[in-house]
Amino acid sequence: MTTIALLRHGQTDWNLQGRIQGSSDIPLNDTGREQARDAGRRLRGRGVTKVVASPLVRASETARLAAEQLGLSGPDEHVPDLVERAYGIAEGVPGEDLPLLYPHGVPNAEPEAHVIARARRALASLAERHPDESILAATHGGVIGRLMRDLPETGFPWPGRARVLNGSVWIFDVDGTDIRFAEDLSPVE
Question: What is the domain-level CATH number for residue 97?
Answer without folding.
Answer: 3.40.50.1240
